[in-house]
User: Fold this.
Amino acid sequence: MEADRTGGGAVVTVPGLLLFAGFALVGPAAAFLVPSTLIQSLLTQATIYAIFALGVGILIRQNGMVSFGHAAFFGLPAYVIGAVLPLGLMPPELIIIGGLAATALMAFLVGLVIVRVHGIAFGMLTLAIGQAVYEAATRLRGLTGGHDGLSLDLPRFLFGLPLKTFQQPGSMLIVTWLVLALMLAVAFLFAKSRYGLLSEAIRDNEERVRFLGYRTLVPRALTFALSALVTAAGGVLFALYNAFVSPETVHWTASGSALIMAILGGASAPWGPVAGAFTYFFLKEAVGSFTTHWLSIIGVSLIVVTVVFPAGLVGLFDRLRPGNRSQGAANVG
Amino acid sequence: MSANALEVRGATKTYGGFTALAGVDLTVAPGEVRALIGPNGAGKSTLIDVISGRGANISAEVRLFGTDISRASPAQRRLAGMSRSFQRTSIFPGLPVRQQLLLAAHRMGEGDVDELLGEFNLAAVADIAAGLISYGDQRRLDLALALVGRPRVLLLDEPAAGLSFEESKHLAEHLRHLAARWSVTVLLVEHDMDVVFAIADRITVLQLGRVLAEGDPAEIRANPDVIKAYLGSAA
Assistant:
C-alpha cells in the first residue's frame, strides 16, 4: 500500500474502489434494515462525530499534532449559518459552503501562527483558541443567542432536498454516511498524495525537510486547514440535523471527546478515528443503560488502549494481520 | 564571478556570551575534497552549520560558485546546489526508504532514485520504514538524501559517525569516487585521521573557533603547530 504513493503504481485500485463502494453502501443499508428510529438516530449522531474525529485524526496522522480545540471548527459553520441565514442575503446553500470555506480559511490563517510551536504548547494554543470561540459564543448574545443557543431557521428545501431529509434519523443517516465516505476518500487520497507524504516527512523530521529544499510552514498550516475543514463538514451536518447550536457544541469537552475517539480508534490510518467514534457511541449507549457513570468506563478503556494498544484499533487490526505493515506503531509519531 | 565552489568569509557563531566560531574564512576549489579537522570543540560542526544556514546567532558571507547565498534559507541553499548530511542521523523514521528519497528527488526535479539506492546499497531495504533498518543503512540513507539531485557542494558532518573502522574506510573511499564521478565539491568533518589523509585533497585545521592551519595532507602532517595542538595529542 505504502509503495503506491509516488512509486508509479496506481493509488486507486479496483479492490480499493470496491471496498470504498461497499463501505459507502453500509449507511444506506443500515437506514433500511434497522427498524428502530432510536438506533438510526444513534447511528446518525455517531456518523456526524465520526467526521469530527476524522478531522482530528488527519491532524494527528499527517502533522503529528494533537488539537484540544477542534470543537471551534465543528461549531463555527453552524454559527455562521445561524447568524447569516436570517439576513436573507444569499441562498442557504451558498451560506453553508461559505461557512465551510470561512472555517477552513480561518484555520489556515490561525495555523500559520500556531503550527510554529510543537507538542504541549501547540495543544495549549488550540485549547485557548477553542475556548476563545466558546467565550465569543456565550458573550455575543445578539449573534449567537448566548447560553440559550441559536435556533437555525432553515428553509424548506436545501440542495434540492426537502428539509426533513436532514432531520429524520433514517434519511439523515444516509446523508451523513455518504458525507463520511466522501471525507474518508479525501483523507485517504490526501495521505497517498505527494503533499501527504511531504506532511508526514515534516511530522517525522521538519529540519531535514528544510535541508531537502522544501518550505515547511505552509504545508503544515494547509494540513491544519484540511483537518479543520473535515471537522467543519461534520459541524454542518450537526447544524442541519439539530437545527440548533449552543456553546456546548464548541466547548473544549467536545474537542476532548473527538480526541478520545481518534485515539481510541488510532490515527495511523484514516479509518481509525471513524471506528473510534462508533466504538465511543456504542460503549456510551451500552454502558449508559445500566450506569450514569459511563464516562468512567470510557476513561478506563482509554487507559487500556493507550497502555496496551498505543496505536488504537488500527494497531490492533495491524497486529492481527501478521507480517503486514509492522511499522503501524511507528507511524503514529 | 568567482571560480571557487565555496567561499566563506567571517563565519561566526555565538552561544550567549561564548564565541564558538570567530570569523573563519574558507575557500574551496571546484571538485576539491576538503577535510575539516581539529580537537573537540574547535568549531568544525559549527562551521558546517553556519555555512548551511542552520541555527540561530550565526553570520557569514557565503558564496556558492560566485553567487551570494548569505541570506538564503536552508531550503533555498539546497535548491541553489548546496547540500549537507548530519552527524546525528537525520532521516524520516516513519517513511519507507524509497519514499523519502523520492520526496527529495521530486524537489530537485528528478523522478528516479534507483541509481542512488544502488550506489548506497539500499535497494534491499527500499520499501522498509527507515526507523526499522540497521544503523549502517540509516547512515547511508542520510548521505543518499544529501546526494539527491547531485548537489554542486556537499557538506558532510562526520559521515562515518558510529561506524566501525572498516565501514568508515569503505564509506570514505566510496564518497571519494562518487564525488569525482558526479563532480561534487566536498567539505567534510572527520575524526579519523587515516580516513582524512586518504581522501582529502586539502585539509583545514580549526582550533578554538579559528583556523590554525591549512594545506595539503603532507603539509598538515608536517606542520609543527598542528602536531602540537592536535595530531600529537591524538597519536
Remarks:
- Chain B is about 35% helix and 25% strand.
- The first helix of chain B runs from residue 44 to 52.
- Chain B has a mean pLDDT of 90.
- Strands of chain B lie at 6-15, 18-28, 33-37, 58-64, 67-68, 82-84, 153-157, 185-189, 202-207, 210-215.
